[in-house]
C-alpha cells in the first residue's frame, strides 16, 4: 500500500485557516519572463495570494519584485520580515534567504546551504502543503535542475493542485520535465494559459458540494459542505465500484473522510461540483479512473521522514536487532507501503551503519512492498532529484549516493540489500520471520477493524520479539495484547509472545479479482466490520425485557443482560463461555432441549416451567429461545430469555420418581460432558494441527512470493544484461569508428603541422623533450634521436634566458606565457608557452611554440615611426591653428575698434539738434552708419568663413518661421528706400514655414543675397523675394533684373573670393567675393542648399535657397522688446570702463543723452577702487585692456558683496564663441561685439537693469 503521510515533516508548523488559495510559483533560469507572462494574464481581483520563489544570487540585490510589479496591478512585496498572507497580493523571496509559511504568515530565515544546492522551491512547497493543505496550489516554471519536483508531490498528497509549464514553452525545460517525471502533475500548460485555469479551479472549488468531513486537522473546505450524506453514500459506493471495475483496486475499507478528500481533489481538476456529476464524468472518460487511482495511491515520502522517530529507531531498536542474532542469521526488514523507496533505502542505510559500527558481517534483506506499480518502478532505479540534500545528511549523501548530472543514485551495494515487490496488505499473504516491520502513516486511512486484522498479520510475520515501527498518528492499541510499546511517542512497538492459538495471519479480505465483482455489486458492498454484540442485543431486546443473553450456534455466550447472573454458576477449572456449562444444574436439561428445538426452526421455543427450589414458594423459570438474524450486521444468533413465574399450586410436588429420573439424567449428563470434553480436546488438537498446516501453507506462500519476486528480479537482471550487451556492441562499433577517426585526425594533424611551418616543442614536467616539429630544428640544435633528452642540454639561437623558468612555471599550471623574443640576425619570434594537458585534464608538461614575427615587427616599427611623425605634425598643426585663431581675434579687435569709435560718434551726430535740421548732414551720418555696418559685415563674413573652414562655427538652432524672418527683412529694406523696389511674394496658404535654424545665420543668408541683388541691379529695376514650399522643403528665391551671369561662371560663383563680370558692376560698390561662399556654407550647415541660374549677361539672376521643414506644431521664439524713445535710461547708474579715451568719452556722452548717470574710467584699477564704495545698476567693460583685462576686472568686482549680482556687459572686438563663453564664465551677463549698435546697447542695459522685461 502506498505511504500516506499524515502529519507535516516539521511538527512546529501550524495549520492555516485562510479561506482562499495560496499559489506557490517556483522558477529559476528563464523564469522571470514566464512569471511576467503569467501575471500579465492574471486579473488583479482574482481572490488568490501568490508567493514567488526564485533561485537568486546571495551576493546581489534582487529587482524581481519591481519586474513583476510592472506586469500586474496587485501589490508586489519582497519578503524580508514576517508578513501576513493577503488575497490579491504577490510576495517574492529575498536573496540569501529561505522562505517558509506557517499559520497564515510568510517568514524568512537565512539559507544556510552551500552554493549550488537549489532546494528553496522544494522547501517552500513542503511547508505550503503541510500548512495550507488543499488550499495550496503550485506552479513550476522555466528553470534548470529539478527543484520543485519533490515539494510538488507533497502539494498533491495534501489535496492541492499542481501545474507545470509546457517544456516547449519554457526557456529552460529541466525543472518542468523533472516535475512531470514524478507523475504528480495535474495540468501541463503554457505560462499564458495558467491564470485562466487557476481561475476556473478556484471557481469550481467554491461550487463543490460534498457531505461534511469530520476532520479537525484540515483547513476550511474550499467548497461548501451542504451535501446530503445519506444521498451521497450510494453515489460514493458507485464511484468506488466503478474504480474497482476499471483498475481492479478495492477501496471499500478506506475511511470515508480519506476517500472524500481524494475525490474532492479530482472534482477541482475535472471541473465537477458534486458526486453525481463526477460519477458521470468517470463513466464517460476512461482515463479518469487511472487519475483517480493515482490520487488514491499518492505515494509521497522522503528519506528519514520524521527525523526524531528515525533517531529513536537508531537508539532503541537497531543496536538490539544487530547484536542479538548470530552472524549467519539474516536480518530481515519489511517496509510495507514503501512508495518510491526512500523509506526502504533509509532503513538499509541505518542497518548498514549499525553493522559497521559493531563490526558485524550479517546479511541484510529489506523487503519493500507497495500496491503502486509505478512507484515500485521508480524505487528500483534508485535515482532521486537533487532536493534530497534537504533530507539526507552530507555524510550519508557521500557514503551511500553517487551524483549523476542533476540527480543522486543510491549506490549498488545499498540497492542490492533491498527487494521491491508489489503487495496488497488486504489480500496477499505476509512475509515471515521478519525482525522489523515499518508501516508508517498507512493504517490511519483504513477502518479500525481492518487495522486490527493488519496488526495481527504483522504479529504473525514477526519473529518472537520482533519490532513494529508505525507512523506518528498511528497506534497498536487495537491489538494491545499482541504488542508492547518500546517508544510510544515515536510509535515503536515490540511483538509479545502468545500461544499458537492466539497467532493469526489476519483475515484474508477478498482480493480485487473480477470474479467477486458481481457479488459485490449485488450486495452493494456490505460493510465489512465486525458486529457490536451490545448493539445486536439491544436491538433483539426491543421486544423483550426479562433477563437474557445472546449465544452463537454452539451455545457460547456472546453478550449478557443485567440480572441474568442468578441463573448461572461458575465451576472449578478452566473458565468456559459455553452457556450449558455455566447455567444452573436444574435448568441445564431443559435449556439443552430448548436450544436444540430452536436450532431446528425459525420460531421461538418456550420450555415447560422448571422449579429452581423446593417448598410452597419455589420459583419456576420458563426458558424461551428465539432464533435471531441481525440485518445490519448479517449475523445469526440465539436469544435466550429467562422468565420467572409463580408456582402453580395445582401441580404436585416432585416425587421419588422425579428424583430418580433426575439422577439418571444427571449421570447421563455427566457422561455426555465427559464425551464432549474428549471431543473438544480432539477438536482443539485438530485445530492446532490445522493452524500449523495453515501457517506452514502461508509460509510456503510467502516463500513462493519471495521466489516470484526473486524470479522477477532475475528476469529484470537478464533484461538489463541483454541491454548492456547491446550497448557493448554499440560501444564496440563506436570505438571502431573512433579509431578510424583518430587515424584520420592524426593524418590531419600531421599535414596541419607541416603546412603551418611553426616551430613547436613538447616537453614533460622535467623539461625532457617528447616531440618537436621539423621547423623547431631551425631554432634548436636537435635531432630526432634527442627525444628524451633535457631541453637544457640543447643549444638554441634565441635571446631567451628565461626559457627554462617559464617552461617550469607553465608546467606547474601557474600561468600561460607569451613573449616577443629576438633571434639570430634581425629575426623576431612570438614565444607562446601553454600547459600540455592529458585526456584526464592533468598537466603533464609544456608546449613551446615559436612563431616568426620578423615582418610584423618591422611593420610595427615603421608604424611607430609614422605615428611619431604624425604626432609631431598634429602638434604643429594645433599650434598653427591656435596662432591663426589668435590672429583672427586680434584682427577682428583691431578692425572693429575704429569702426566702433566711428559708429558711436555718428550716433552722437545723429542725436544733435543742429544735425537733425540739416538734411545733408543727416544723410552724411546715415551714410557713415551704413558704411560702418557694411565694413562690420565684411569683417564678420571673413571671420565666419574662417570658422566654417576650420569647423568652429556653432549654430544656435531653434524652431523659427522663415516667412516671418523674410517679412522682417523686407520691411527693413522698404524703410531704407532703395532705388530698386523689392516685392515680396508669399505662399497662398499663408502657413508658417517652420525650420530648425539659427536666426542670425538665416538673416545673414537672406541679407547677402538681397545685398547682391541691390548692388548689381540698375536703378528702377524690380527685385522679387519669392517664398514657397513643398512637403519637405521651404524655398526662397531672390530674382533680379541686373547684370546677370555668364553660364560658364555658374559653377564657381560660390567659391571664396570669386566674382563674375566685375566689369559690369558698379565698381563703387564692388565686394570681396565672400558673400555667396558664406551663403552656400551656411545653407549647407542648415541641411539645405543654394543654386544660381542666369540666362546670360545682362539678363538678371535667380538665386534659390532650399531648407528642410520641421514639425509645423513647434512655436517660434518670441520677439524681443520694441525699442524705446530717448531718455530710456532715466535713473540708471552705469560703471563704464574702456582703455580707449575716445570710445570712453563718446559712449559716456551717448548714455548720458539717454538720461543715465555714467561713472567712466579708462584705468581698470581706478574703476575697481571707486567701485569699493559705489553702487551701480549696470557695469560695462572692455575686455582687451592693458594691465588688468576685462575678465580680471569683473572677477575682482564680483568679490565685493554689494556687486556680486550687479548685471555686467562685456563690450569687445573679440567675438568668437570661445570669447563669449569665457566672458560668461568670468561673470559677465552679456557679450556685445564691436562695433555695437547704439540701440542694441541701450536695449541690453534696459533688460539687465530691469527697466524693461528681459
Set out the fold topology.
Blueprint: E1 22-27, H1 31-41, E2 49-54, H2 64-69, E3 76-78, E4 83-84, E5 89-92, E6 97-102, E7 105-110, H3 120-132, E8 136-140, H4 149-157, E9 161-165, H5 174-181, E10 187-189, H6 194-207, H7 229-247, H8 256-270, H9 275-284, H10 286-296, H11 307-316, H12 318-323, E11 331-336, H13 342-358, E12 364-370, H14 373-381, E13 383-385, H15 394-400, E14 401-404, E15 407-410, H16 412-415, E16 418-422, E17 434-439, H17 448-461, E18 462-470, E19 483-487, E20 492-495, H18 517-523, H19 533-540, E21 548-551, E22 557-560, H20 579-582, H21 585-599, E23 605-606, E24 610-611, E25 620-630, E26 635-645, H22 656-756, E27 759-764, E28 769-772, H23 803-811, E29 817-822, E30 828-837, E31 843-852, H24 854-911, H25 913-916, H26 919-950, E32 958-961, H27 962-976, E33 982-985, E34 994-997, H28 999-1015, E35 1023-1029, E36 1033-1039, H29 1075-1085, E37 1089-1094, E38 1101-1108, E39 1133-1137, H30 1141-1153, E40 1157-1161, H31 1164-1171, E41 1178-1181, H32 1190-1197, E42 1208-1212, H33 1217-1226, E43 1230-1233, H34 1238-1249
Parallel strand pairs: 1-2, 1-8, 2-5, 3-5, 8-9, 9-10, 11-12, 11-17, 12-16, 17-18, 33-35, 39-40, 39-41, 41-42, 42-43
Antiparallel strand pairs: 4-7, 6-7, 13-15, 14-15, 18-20, 19-20, 21-22, 21-26, 23-25, 24-25, 25-26, 27-28, 27-31, 29-30, 30-31, 32-34, 35-36, 36-38, 37-38
Helix pairs in contact: 3-4, 7-9, 7-10, 8-10, 9-10, 24-26, 24-30, 26-29, 27-28, 28-29, 31-32
Active site: 28, 55, 147
InterPro entries: Bact_Chemotaxis_MeTrfase, CheB_C, CheR_C, CheR_MeTrfase, CheR_N, CheR_N_sf, CheY-like_superfamily, HATPase_C_sf
Domain CheR-type methyltransferase: 224-475
Amino acid at each position: 500500500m502506498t505511504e500516506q503521510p499524515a502529519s507535516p515533516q516539521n511538527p512546529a508548523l501550524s495549520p492555516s485557516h485562510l479561506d482562499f488559495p495560496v499559489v506557490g510559483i517556483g522558477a529559476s533560469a528563464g523564469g522571470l519572463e514566464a512569471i511576467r507572462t503569467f501575471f500579465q494574464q492574471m486579473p488583479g481581483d482574482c481572490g488568490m495570494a501568490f508567493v514567488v520563489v526564485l533561485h537568486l544570487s546571495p551576493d546581489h540585490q534582487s529587482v524581481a519584485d519591481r519586474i513583476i510589479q510592472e506586469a500586474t496591478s496587485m501589490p508586489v512585496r519582497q519578503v524580508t520580515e514576517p508578513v501576513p498572507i493577503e488575497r490579491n497580493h504577490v510576495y517574492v523571496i529575498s536573496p540569501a534567504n529561505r522562505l517558509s509559511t506557517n499559520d497564515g504568515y510568510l517568514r524568512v530565515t537565512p539559507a544556510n546551504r552551500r552554493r549550488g544546492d537549489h532546494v528553496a522551491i522544494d522547501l517552500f512547497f513542503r511547508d505550503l502543503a503541510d500548512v495550507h493543505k488543499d488550499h495550496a496550489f503550485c506552479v513550476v516554471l522555466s528553470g534548470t535542475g529539478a527543484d520543485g519536483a519533490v515539494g510538488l508531490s507533497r502539494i498533491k498528497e495534501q489535496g492541492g493542485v499542481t501545474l507545470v509549464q509546457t517544456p516547449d514553452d519554457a526557456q529552460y525545460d529541466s525543472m518542468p520535465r523533472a516535475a512531470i517525471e514524478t507523475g504528480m502533475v495535474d495540468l501541463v500548460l503554457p505560462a499564458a494559459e495558467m491564470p485562466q485555469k487557476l481561475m476556473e479551479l478556484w471557481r469550481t472549488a467554491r461550487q463543490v458540494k460534498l457531505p461534511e468531513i469530520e476532520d479537525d486537522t484540515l483547513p476550511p473546505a474550499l467548497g461548501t459542505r451542504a451535501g446530503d450524506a445519506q444521498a451521497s453514500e450510494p453515489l460514493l459506493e458507485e464511484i468506488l465500484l466503478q474504480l474497482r471495475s476499471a483498475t481492479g483496486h478495492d477501496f471499500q475499507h478506506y475511511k470515508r473522510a480519506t476517500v472524500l478528500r481524494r475525490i474532492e481533489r479530482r472534482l477541482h481538476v475535472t471541473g465537477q461540483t458534486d458526486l453525481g456529476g463526477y460519477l458521470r464524468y468517470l463513466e464517460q472518460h476512461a482515463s479518469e479512473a487511472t487519475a483517480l487511482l493515482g490520487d488514491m495511491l499518492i505515494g509521497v515520502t522522503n528519506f528519514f521522514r520524521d527525523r526524531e522517530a528515525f533517531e529513536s529507531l537508531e537508539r532503541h531498536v537497531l543496536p538490539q536487532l544487530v547484536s542479538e542474532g548470530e552472524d549467519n542469521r539474516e536480518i530481515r526488514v519489511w517496509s510495507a507501503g514503501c512508495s518510491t523507496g526512500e523509506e526502504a533505502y533509509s532503513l538499509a542505510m541505518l542497518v548498514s551503519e549499525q553493522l559497521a559500527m559493531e563490526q558485524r558481517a550479517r546479511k541484510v534483506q529489506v523487503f519493500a512492498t507497495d500496491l503502486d506499480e509505478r512507484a515500485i518502478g521508480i524505487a528500483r532505479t534508485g535515482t532521486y532529484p537533487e532536493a534530497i540534500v534537504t533530507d539526507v545528511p552530507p555524510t550519508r549523501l557521500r557514503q551511500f549516493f553517487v551524483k549523476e548530472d542533476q540527480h543522486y543514485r543510491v549506490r549498488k551495494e545499498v540497492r542490492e540489500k533491498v527487494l521491491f515487490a508489489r503487495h496488497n496488505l488486504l489480500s496477499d499473504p505476509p512475509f515471515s520471520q521478519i525482525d522489523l516491520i515499518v508501516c508508517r502513516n498507512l493504517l490511519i486511512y483504513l477502518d479500525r477493524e481492518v487495522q486490527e486484522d493488519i496488526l495481527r498479520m504483522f504479529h504473525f510475520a514477526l519473529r518472537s520479539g520482533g519490532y513494529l515501527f508505525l507512523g506518528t498518528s498511528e497506534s497498536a492499541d487495537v491489538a494491545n495484547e499482541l504488542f508492547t510499546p518500546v517508544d510510544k511517542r515515536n510509535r515503536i512497538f515490540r511483538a509479545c509472545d502468545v500461544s499458537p492459538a492466539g497467532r493469526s495471519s489476519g483475515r484474508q479480505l477478498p482480493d480485487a479479482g473480477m470474479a467477486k465483482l458481481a457479488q459485490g455489486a449485488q450486495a452493494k458492498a456490505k460493510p465489512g466490520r465486525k458486529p457490536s454484540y451490545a448493539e445486536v442485543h439491544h436491538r433483539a431486546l426491543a421486544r423483550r425485557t426479562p433477563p437474557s443473553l445472546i449465544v452463537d450456534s454452539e451455545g457460547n455466550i456472546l453478550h449478557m443482560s443485567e440480572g441474568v447472573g442468578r441463573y448461572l454458576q461458575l465451576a472449578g477449572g478452566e473458565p468456559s463461555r459455553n452457556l450449558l456449562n455455566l447455567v444452573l444444574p436444574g435448568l441445564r436439561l431443559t435449556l439443552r432441549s430448548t436450544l436444540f428445538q430452536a436450532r431446528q426452526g425459525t420460531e421461538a421455543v418456550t420450555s415447560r416451567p422448571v422449579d429452581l427450589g423446593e417448598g410452597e414458594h419455589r420459583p419456576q423459570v420458563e426458558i424461551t429461545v428465539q432464533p435471531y438474524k441481525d440485518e445490519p450486521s448479517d449475523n445469526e444468533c440465539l436469544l435466550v430469555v429467562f422468565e420467572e413465574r409463580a408456582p402453580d399450586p395445582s401441580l404436585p410436588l416432585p416425587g421419588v420418581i422425579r428424583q430418580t429420573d433426575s439422577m439418571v439424567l444427571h449421570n447421563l449428563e455427566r457422561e455426555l460432558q465427559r464425551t464432549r470434553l474428549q471431543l473438544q480436546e480432539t477438536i482443539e488438537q485438530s485445530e492446532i494441527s490445522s493452524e500449523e498446516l495453515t501457517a506452514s501453507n502461508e509460509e510456503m506462500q510467502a516463500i513462493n512470493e519471495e521466489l516470484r519476486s526473486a524470479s522477477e528480479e532475475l528476469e529484470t537482471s537478464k533484461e538489463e544484461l541483454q541491454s548492456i550487451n547491446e550497448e557493448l556492441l554499440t560501444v564496440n562499433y563506436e570505438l571502431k569508428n573512433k579509431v578510424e577517426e583518430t587515424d584520420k585526425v592524426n593524418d590531419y594533424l600531421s599535414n596541419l603541422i607541416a603546412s603551418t611551418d611553426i616551430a613547436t616543442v613538447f616537453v614533460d614536467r622535467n623539461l625532457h623533450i617528447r616531440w618537436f616539429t621539423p621547423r623547431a630544428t631551425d631554432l634548436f640544435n636537435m635531432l630526432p634521436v634527442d627525444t628524451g633528452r633535457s631541453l637544457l642540454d640543447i643549444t638554441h639561437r634565441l635571446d631567451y634566458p628565461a626559457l627554462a623558468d617559464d617552461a617550469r612555471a607553465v608546467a606547474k599550471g601557474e600561468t600561460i606565457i607569451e613573449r616577443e623574443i629576438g633571434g639570430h640576425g634581425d629575426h623576431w619570434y612570438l614565444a607562446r608557452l601553454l600547459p600540455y594537458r592529458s585526456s584526464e585534464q592533468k598537466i603533464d608538461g609544456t608546449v613551446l611554440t615559436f612563431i616568426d614575427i620578423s615582418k610584423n615587427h618591422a611593420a610595427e616599427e615603421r608604424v611607430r615611426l609614422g605615428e611619431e611623425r604624425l604626432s609631431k605634425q598634429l602638434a604643429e598643426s594645433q599650434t598653427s591653428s591656435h596662432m591663426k585663431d589668435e590672429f583672427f581675434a586680434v584682427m577682428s579687435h583691431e578692425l572693429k575698434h575704429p569702426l566702433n569709435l566711428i559708429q558711436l560718434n555718428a550716433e552722437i551726430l545723429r542725436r544733435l539738434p543742429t544735425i537733425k535740421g540739416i538734411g545733408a548732414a543727416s544723410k552724411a551720418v546715415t551714410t557713415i552708419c551704413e558704411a560702418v555696418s557694411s565694413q562690420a559685415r565684411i569683417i564678420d563674413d571673413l571671420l565666419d568663413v574662417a570658422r566654417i573652414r576650420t569647423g568652429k562655427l556653432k549654430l544656435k538652432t531653434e524652431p523659427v518661421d522663415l516667412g516671418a524672418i523674410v517679412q522682417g527683412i523686407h520691411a527693413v529694406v522698404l524703410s531704407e528706400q532703395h532705388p530698386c523696389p523689392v516685392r515680396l511674394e508669399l505662399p497662398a496658404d499663408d502657413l508658417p514655414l517652420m525650420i530648425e535654424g539659427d536666426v542670425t545665420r538665416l538673416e545673414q543668408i537672406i541679407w547677402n543675397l538681397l545685398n547682391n541683388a541691390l548692388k548689381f541691379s540698375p536703378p528702377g529695376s524690380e527685385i522679387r523675394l519669392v517664398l514657397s514650399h513643398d512637403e519637405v522643403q521651404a524655398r526662397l528665391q531672390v530674382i533680379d533684373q541686373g547684370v546677370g551671369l555668364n553660364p560658364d561662371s555658374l559653377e564657381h560663383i560660390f567659391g571664396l573670393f570669386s566674382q563674375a563680370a566685375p566689369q559690369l558692376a558698379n565698381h563703387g560698390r564692388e565686394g570681396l567675393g565672400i558673400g555667396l561662399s558664406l551663403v552656400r556654407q551656411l545653407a549647407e550647415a542648415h541641411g539645405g542648399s543654394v543654386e544660381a541660374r542666369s540666362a546670360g549677361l545682362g539678363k538678371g539672376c535667380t538665386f534659390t535657397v532650399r531648407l528642410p521643414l520641421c514639425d509645423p506644431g513647434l512655436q517660434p521664439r518670441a520677439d524681443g522688446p520694441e525699442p524705446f524713445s530717448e531718455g530710456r535710461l532715466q535713473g540708471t547708474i552705469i560703471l563704464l570702463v574702456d582703455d580707449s579715451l575716445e570710445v570712453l568719452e563718446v559712449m559716456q556722452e551717448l548714455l548720458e543723452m539717454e538720461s543715465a548717470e555714467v561713472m567712466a574710467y579708462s584705468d581698470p584699477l581706478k574703476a575697481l577702487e571707486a567701485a569699493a564704495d559705489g553702487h551701480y545698476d549696470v557695469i560695462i567693460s572692455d575686455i582687451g585692456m592693458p594691465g588688468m583685462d576685462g575678465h580680471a576686472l569683473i572677477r575682482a568686482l564680483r568679490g565685493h558683496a554689494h556687486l556680486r549680482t550687479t548685471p555686467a556687459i562685456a563690450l569687445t572686438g573679440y567675438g568668437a564663441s570661445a570669447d563669449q563663453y569665457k566672458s560668461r564664465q568670468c561673470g559677465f551677463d552679456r557679450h556685445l561685439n564691436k562695433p555695437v549698435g547704439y540701440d542694441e546697447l541701450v536695449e541690453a542695459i534696459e533688460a539687465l537693469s530691469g527697466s524693461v522685461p528681459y
